[in-house]
Amino acid sequence: MMCTDALPGRLHPALPMLSSLTIGQAHQKLRSKEITSEELTRACIAQIEKVDGTLNAVVHENFERALEQAKNVDAKGDYAHPLTGIPYLAKDVYCEEGVLTTASSNMLRNKDYIAPFDSTTTKRLKAVGAMSIGKVNTDEFTMGASTETSCFGVTKNPWDTNCVAGGSSGGSAAAVAADECLFALGTDTGGSIRQPAGFCNITGIRPTYGRTSRFGVMSMASTLDTIGPMCKNIEDLAIVLEAIAGHDPLDGTTSHEAVPPYSKNLKTDVKGLKIGIPKEYFIPGMNQEVEGAVREAAKVLENLGATLHEISLPHTEYATPCYYVLCPCEVSSNMARYDGVRYGHTVTQPKDLLEYYERVRSEGFGPEVKRRIMIGTYALSAGYFDAFYRQAQRVRTLIKQDFEKAFEQVDIILSPVSPTPAFEVGKNSSDPLAMYLEDIFLSSQVMAGIPALSVPCGFSKNGLPIGLQLMGPQWGEQTILSAAHAYERSTEWHKKKPVIA
Ligand code: GLN
Questions:
Q1: Which residues of 12-33 are buried (b: 16+ CB within 10 A; e: fewer)?
Q2: Which atom in ligand 1 lies closest to the alpha carbon of residue 327?
């Protein structure tokens, strides 16, 4: 464990508290020379050293290098971009040149895989002067909803350490909520940004598929994977998204669609905004506290001038089953590259090549990854392809059409993020189906490729955060960011901070 004494330099008197600033606040202070980027970075490091023993969010530290970068930024003294001099943490699937990146899997951890190149996103952040201070925990290769499949063990929820922080970007969410960084990067294949954001009382956005580049981020399911920011408020989310979004020649699925200046365009006015409330997301027997908080949030938006409309997304019930056919199919193909030949875990003295593969993959991968490889390979095999894969693709089209029809009537759609607040560590870990059902409100948007975000909207009586989900049409990030911003300005939920025991 790194100790701050080993890092000589001027310490700010209010050191740990600096890490609780939002990007917007820190930017002001950097520009007015009230603080330096080095102080900000040291504050994050100090907070990591203080609380991460309890939370287990940070899995690889990059402190020395981040401090070097911070000093360089301070020496130049030009903080023109809102992210210049801002420290962040990246999920352990973002490749950064010269930095340990392991997808929280023994497959890469056993060989201390050091990425030889930068992901487009971390490169773009580096170019504007933001510094990565380390890597945060994830479910193995992002497969899971609790970080319990990580080879580093579970990340605890800062609001209640008996509960999970969510997943797979649970490390990112806990780190932001606990002020270990100013923002974090996550990935959302089937809800992994929105669910942990909701569980930890922070904000996170899954952008439209093709809005952000996947280059250099270890793939799970290539037609579903998106990458996005997780922040302390909506303004910050807009700032980071703007910096990382846009066409990338290295990712052929990114769009040439212009990136709006999201942060400048943020409105606080929702007058006339038509909000759809899908009846399929509010079902009898649902968690009362979640339903209450989300309906209350809808009222807040109505009081601000929006109109509420009941709508139907009839194929909603098929979204999660459909996801759990398509996702494993793509997983089975993407995981094929981990064969122990080019990189990753290796074994000695195999009898032959087949035994080499068998041993590498059975030792390197954990049970959830193996489960998905098996399901995916089965669903893609000759006799079952039509019955499973092709059928799921058809259902995917129907789900997409549900949204297209709905967005002819309304501007955005509102729902809960998760069926319950954060669950206890171990509750679902031996029941994959129960874990998959955690994604019930999060799979449809993935099938349709549309943007969706999570914003804090209340707490359970046990003091656990509840998240509100806003969905927009393709390329509709600005509309949901503005609505969430308006909501956030009329509420105090996002300002609440956990006390970490
Ligand atoms: N819980 C989902 C899964 O396990 C989501 C994962 C993700 O978005 N990376 O597939």
A1: beebbebbbbbbbbbbebbbee
A2: 10
Edge to edge, the sheet with strand 226-231 lists 58-61, 131-136, 87-91, 183-188, 226-231, 203-206, 452-459, 465-471, 412-416, 274-278, 307-311
**How many beta carbons lie within 10 A of that of residue 461, not counting itself?**
7
CA 188 to ligand 1 centroid distance, Å: 7
Say how far apart CA 293 and CA 159 lie, in whole Å: 18
Rounded to whole angstroms, the Cα distance separating 142 from 94 reads: 11
| pTM across the whole model | 0.96
Atom of ligand 1 nearest to the CA of 438: 1
User: Is 156 known to be catalytic?
Assistant: no
Q: CA–CA separation, 468 vs 210, rounded Å?
A: 24
Residue whose CB lies within 8 A of the most ligand 1 atoms, among 439, 443, 444, 454, for a mutation test: 439
Question: Is 467:457 a contact under the CB 8 Å cutoff?
Answer: yes
Phi-psi region of 435 (alpha: psi -120 to 50; beta: other; left: phi over 0): alpha
Pseudo-torsion of CA 298, 304, 305, 307, nearest 10°?
Answer: 0
Residue tagged active-site, from 37, 105, 132, 168 = 168
What's the pLDDT score for residue 16?
52
For 77, 240, 364, the CA distances from 27, given in Å and listed in that order, are 12, 13, 42
Give the model confidence (pLDDT) of 243-255 as tens digits. Answer: 999 999 999 999 9
Residue nearest to atom 10 of ligand 1 (CA): 143
Q: Check whether 2 has a pLDDT greater than 60.
A: no
CA of 94 to the centre of ligand 1 (A): 16
Report percent pLDDT > 70 for the chain. Answer: 97
Q: Binning pLDDT at 50, 70 and 90, where does residue 268 land? A: confident
Ligand 1 atom closest to Cα of residue 188? 8
Residue 288's pLDDT band (boundaries 50, 70, 90)?
A: very high
Given a cut of 70, is residue 10 above it in pLDDT? no
Around ligand 1, the residues with Cβ closer than 6 Å are 142-145, 168, 187-192, 220, 327, 439
Catalytic residue check, 150? no
Cβ atoms 281, 316 nearer than 8 A: yes
Q: Which residues of 240-271 are buried (b: 16+ CB within 10 A; e: fewer)?
A: bbbbbbbebeebeebbeeebbebbeebeeebe
Instruction: Kindly report the protein residue whose alpha carbon is nearest to atom 4 of ligand 1.
Output: 144
Instruction: Calculate ∠ Cα 199-85-117, nearest 5°.
Output: 80
HSE of 260 in the Cβ direction (CA atoms, 13 Å)?
Answer: 13
Q: Which is the catalytic residue, given 91, 123, 135, 232?
A: 91
Which residue type, as a one-letter code, is found at position 272? G
Which atom in ligand 1 lies closest to the alpha carbon of residue 187? 9
105 is catalytic: no
